[in-house]
Design brief:
about 150 residues, 5 helices, mainly alpha, 3 strands, three-stranded antiparallel sheet, rod-shaped, single chain
Length: about 150
Amino acid sequence: MLANSPPPTLTVASAPFTARGIAAMGRRRFGFSLIELLAAVAIIGIMAFLAIPQVTRMRSDGERNLAISRAEALNLATASLIQIRGRTQAISIDWPAASTNDLRYAAVRPYLAYSETTLALYMPSGYSVTFPTSLEPLRKVTLSDSAGQIFY
């Protein structure tokens, strides 16, 4: 500051403590403004938009993994059928007598740790298996979905 200049003074127009300013400071705000609520809803909407495709993708991947796991369990159950019933009995008598996938599932069902009453209930929705027509040589079941065969 210069030695000859007068000290600065506050005018009424620039002072923060006017009658209106003091009255506004005394009031309390309750709740949120409309803009704040709209911003929160927009952020939640964007997060949901980004998250929902990931959740559905994880669910479909989980169902696919369950179908592969159940197909592998059917393969192990078929091998157990051959070991327990005997190769000749299983290959030449038991398996040819079971002519459909449901009858073949009924033949291997006692050898599964978890089994539903029918093959349609055992496999996840949208997936199907086809048992090999012959057990010699021993082959895996064929797993398929709406897009085609799944190699596992």
